[in-house]
Amino acid sequence: MRGASPNAVAEAVAAGESLSGTRGFAGRLPDGRLVRDVLGRQPIFVERSERPLRDADDWAFSPDDLTNPEPIPAGHTVSPGERSAERVFSVPDPAPAADDREAVADLRRALGESLDSVSSQSVAVAFSGGVDSAVVASALDAPLYVVGFPDSHDVAAARRAARLMGREDDLRVVELDVSDVEQAVADVARATGRTNAMDVQIALPLYLAGERAAADGYDRLAVGQGADELFGGYAKVARAPEDPRVEAETVRGAVREVIRTLPDQLERDLLGLRAAGVEPVAPLLDDRVVRTALRLPGDLLVDSRGERKKAFRLAAREFVPDRVAFREKKAVQYGSLVARELDRLARQAGFKRRMDDHVSQYVASRVETE
């Protein structure tokens, strides 16, 4: 079992307690069942097959250890002698908090408790200068790694945020050139098991940050993953129900909708980081934080002016300067300029924009030829 003790997880399964005080888990229960936590924070795979699950050779924590792997769905178990998964956990759906101030205070406490529980031993921080990674960095005596091209938004933002936080000496800039992206494309695609452009664009900067941190002797990389999903960070959530990318009729409903995408995203990020040589640490996905996030009312997710992640930004003022807590940030693939350079590499390799999903075709070609 990874992420918690088998007996503790067994107790949570028996009680149907989805958020039992961990940062995610996966593995074998004492009764032989395989299990994955409700948000899929730890991946686990079984061999894709029509026959029943037999023994230890049928499952693994890494897809590389299986011939034809498929992930166990988040919140499910698979029993010996069975092949289908059974749901044992669901994401809780509590009523929204009635008092906004109390809700922010609860979130502030949960963040503090989660951050205080992270050891600074052999850990580095993936730092983009945005509020998510800055909150994580605030609690750790650790180097801060930002990845991007020299003229990228993320490198500039990380420098500004580090200066405001008094952490200039801790900042380590991993300045990219085109060859860095070109060399990493196939490795990232193989590690994550994905060749689609968006997944590779997102995973690649994180992979390069992890690779540099590992080369510098660090075993773990603290990340800000989960904040956008939990706290209303996406434009499509802010525009619900008008945005066709979400089905929900409310902001709270849209947040729950994007939370359901976490298992797939976290699997990608974790596999990429492990391939880079580091183990991710995600304090913002601690059960204590998740519980408080699920109780936030809609106006603390997106306020009347359209500001996203409102409660998280208010709580973040406890940990970072206001100019960091309330600054907007681009998505990593755009802020680092990795998406731009991947598009350029694809076109230089003959995959023109008029072609269907030309960057994904380029990535697949790199996997085939390397």
From TrEMBL:
Keyword Nucleotide-binding: yes
Stretches assigned to the Asparagine synthetase domain: 107-244, 248-351
Pfam families the record matches: Asn_synthase
Compositionally biased intervals (Low complexity): 1-18
Keywords associated with the record: ATP-binding, Nucleotide-binding
Spans annotated as Disordered: 1-29, 56-83
One annotated GO molecular function: ATP binding
Transmembrane portions of the chain: none
PANTHER family from the UniProt entry: ASPARAGINE SYNTHETASE (PTHR11772), ASPARAGINE SYNTHETASE [GLUTAMINE-HYDROLYZING] (PTHR11772:SF2)
Protein name per the record: Asparagine synthase C-terminal domain-containing protein
Organism: Halorussus aquaticus
Lineage: Archaea, Methanobacteriati, Methanobacteriota, Stenosarchaea group, Halobacteria
